[in-house]
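Lab channel / #folding
Pinned by the channel admin:
"Please post every new chain as: sequence first, then the structure tokens as a reply. Keep commentary short and put observations after the output so the thread stays searchable."

First post following the new format, from NK:
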Amino acid sequence: MRHGNHKYTLGVKPAHRVAIIKNLAIEVFEHRQIKTTHARCMALRTFVDKLITLAKEDTVHNRRTAYSKLNNKDAVTNLFTKVAPLCKTRNGGYTRVIKIADGRVGDSAKMSFFSLVD
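Reply from TO:
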């Protein structure tokens, strides 16, 4: 049985899905807000929340774990020095997904803003 095993497949193979999520997370930690499809926002939410929870305690082990998940040194530095200190007092809910009324121009896909909560 598949109870509790839901994944946002995003219509791609697993390796491609992992690459999409990593790249979107890197962009979030650099720009603090991105615009992408709603399905990608929902898939990204759990990944980013877990990384921010990991970064709240700044240890070498946690930095190496975050680097193994992101493979980007600048993003890990931003995560631990800029993003995590803002979330020290929060117990969760570090991200926000805001739906946009208009769809994407080419295929009318549902679009959303993904941002970090201040």
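NK: Residues 54 and 61 are 10 Å apart (CA to CA).
TO: also worth noting, Strands lie at 33-37, 95-99, 111-116.
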